[in-house]
Amino acid sequence: MKRKVRMPVFKRRKTKPEAYAYVRVSTMEQNEDRQMDAMKAVGIRESHIYLEKKSGKDFDRPEYRKLVKMMKEGDVLYILSIDRLGRNYDEIREQWRLLTKIKKVNIVVLDMPLLDTRQYKDLVGTLISDLVLELLAYVAESERASISERTRQGLKAAKKRGARLGRPRLHFNNDFVEMYRAVCNGKLSISKAAAKLGICKSTFRYRIKAYNERHKG
Q1: How far apart are the C-alpha atoms of 103 and 186, rounded to whole Å?
Q2: In what order do the strands lie in the sheet with 49-53?
Q3: What is the dihedral of CA 20, 40, 26, 178, to 10 degrees?
Q4: Which domain holds residue 208?
Q5: Which CATH number covers residue 97?
Q6: Does any domain span residue 70?
Q7: What average pLDDT does range 28-37 have in this prediction?
């Protein structure tokens, strides 16, 4: 009688949850340093920080889509404020549902400690978290509408006064020019040059692009 040979059973090793961050500013002119500093302060690796510079007029955000696709169940997403998830009440609620219910990742909103889904796993905690989310999403939409109206009125008044509208002109001081030349000559990396100037890499790259456009030809 042949003896049965037991095949070894290999258990799938659970992967450790990863921490990610999403940073968004609505235009190329806004400075993302505050959000970036907040993410680094809680220990998020720079490679896990997804930076988006997009207008709030739509939700066409390629970096956000890449981030959502990258995250797996149990991972943690850090955002500075709830309005980073969407431009209005419905979008914020929909993205929260997508992340927490479908992707099953945790969300930590740094500006609102109550919105930390790692802490609320029971029914009462989930209810509190959902109520806070509803309130903040509504406030975010109301504030955005108010800002848009104030901006529209301000532009209208400025136009009547004959003020020049458009992007402010960037000024490049001697420190920037020195770091720019050092990078071009291969003496410094972009990371080190940005650190010497006290800005993040993305801001330094943006200024390099603007400098090149101004001085081309």
Answers
A1: 43
A2: 49-53, 19-25, 76-79, 106-109
A3: -130
A4: 174-215
A5: 3.40.50.1390
A6: yes
A7: 80
Q: Read off the pTM.
A: 0.57
Domain boundary among 85, 110, 136: 136
pLDDT value for 56 = 55
Cα 207 to Cα 3, 23, 161, 204: the distances in Å are 73, 19, 31, 5
Query: How high is the pLDDT of residue 79?
Result: 94
Q: Print the SS3 string covering 136-172.
A: HHHHHHHHHHHHHHHHHHHHHHHHHHCCCCCCCCCCC
Reading the block at residue 125, the tokens are 């905690």
Does residue 26 carry a catalytic annotation?
yes
In whole angstroms, what separates CA 173 from the centre of its chain?
Answer: 28
User: Which residue in the block uniquely carries the two structure tokens 């007029």?
Assistant: 57
Q: Is the pLDDT of residue 189 over 80?
A: yes
**Through-space distance between the first and last CA atoms of the chain, rounded to whole angstroms:** 88
What pairs with residue 209 in β-bridges? none
26, 81, 148, 191: which one is catalytic?
A: 26
On whether both 129 and 26 belong to a single domain, the answer is: yes
